[in-house]
Amino acid sequence: MEYKNYSYTDKSSIELLLQTNDNEQIISAIIGAVNGIDDWEWLQKLCLNYINHSDYWVSKTAISSLGDVARIHHKLEKEKVVSHLKKIVNEKLLGSVNSAIEDIDLFIK
Q1: Which residue, 66, 48, 53, 44, is CA-closest to 24?
Q2: Among candidates 20, 27, 25, 108, which has minimal Cα distance to 72?
Q3: Nearest by Cα to 30 from 15, 39, 38, 20
Q4: Which residues are CB-contacts of 77 (< 8 A; sequence separation ≥ 6)?
């Protein structure tokens, strides 16, 4: 496994990666955005757009990234985000959902 450090600071570059419809590019864009963009509202919207993606790994990344946004920025629309997360029914994603909600509860008061 190769470790890659994704960190993007330019929203337009991220949006170009997202438009490729390549799942690996989408995942790197989400991770890189969370690591490099200092706009929690934009990040929240980005992640929410992908939590129900048809690809498991894209969804998992978006879900986990919501917890990361809470941890890094200490800001999130808690009720809105948790409501969206609780609507996820894919059993394979429930562990990630629960972890994200725990992070949100821990970092957003």
Answers
A1: 53
A2: 108
A3: 15
A4: 44
Torsion sign over Cα 94, 86, 78, 36: positive
What are 33-85's pLDDT values in tens digits? 999 999 999 999 999 999 999 999 999 999 999 999 999 999 999 999 999 99
H helix intervals, the chain: 11-19, 23-36, 40-50, 56-73, 78-86, 94-107
Cα distance between residue 82 and residue 90, in whole Å? 16
Q: Could you say which DSSP state residue 51 is in?
A: T
**What is the distance between the alpha carbons of residues 85 and 17, in angstroms, rounded to a whole number?**
24
